[in-house]
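Sync notes, pocket subgroup
Present: LS, DG
LS reminded everyone that the earlier model was apo-only. Rerun requested with pantoate included. Inputs:
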Amino acid sequence: VEILKTIEEAKSYINELKKQGSTIGLVPTMGYFHDGHLELMRCSIKKGHETIVSLFVNPAQFGPTEDFDNYPTDLQRDLGLAKRIGVKAIFMPTIKEIYPEGYTTYVEVEGLSKILCGENRPIHFRGVATIVLKLFNIIQPHEAFFGQKDGQQVIIIKKMIQDLNLDIFLEVVPTAREEDGLAMSSRNAYLSLTERQAAPILYQTLKLLEDMILKGERKTSILIDAGKENIIKEPLANLQYIDIRSADDLSGMEELKGKFIIAIAVKIGNTRLIDNIVLKI
Ligand code: PAF
């Protein structure tokens, strides 16, 4: 697997691939791969793309009290996994390469960035949109692969692609889960043993609401209250939000209709976990 460290290296490498007639699939990551990341890479490779993985812990998407300094890394393991799967190249720039001194340009997808996770993480999605647009411009992929676990991120990036007329297809890959339902996340590594045992409460709550919906419940306020009650039963879990919104544009709804996302964020100890499911009626 080729390691690309500078933007110039990445651009000329991709140009060569394109000259040879290849299509490019981009998997943006912050490293510390789990099966969710690997699934994104497999998906891109299966579609016939030369697959480029970006590995960059993006400081712009972390708030001042968040885990940027402790974000887990294991570069050797990541490189081995990417190579085994058949990734063509890893783009792993330094912070200075991406945000040189004097850097001042940021992308804000208004509205969508301030609700749900944006309420607790006010600058997060501005940082995400900015780095993703920069990666799109540097790698110029035909297709980019993101996990459904970050459901709000996916909706925001889709909106950015639409608003800024980008010629990039976005493929959303289902959430990879542990056997007990916990959504795979690099942040799961922060959980102590007892916290890890409490963590499936997110998925259990989503499944509880899905069950109520299957049985006919349609009022979002009743569903949200039931979700809150269920979370409270887990003493280690601190609910940040549970909400039900349109899966297309995150608009709110009193009664379920069309395609909707049930999204949840919980703090367990110091670790913030998110999960969601998308359903249609
Ligand atoms: O989902 C992530 O890991 C990050 O938000 C992303 C898309 C790589 C941007 O830094």
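DG: DSSP finds ten helices and nine strands in the chain.
LS: Residues 28-30, 58, 61, 128, 131-132, 150, 153 surround pantoate (CB under 6 Å).
Action: DG to write up.
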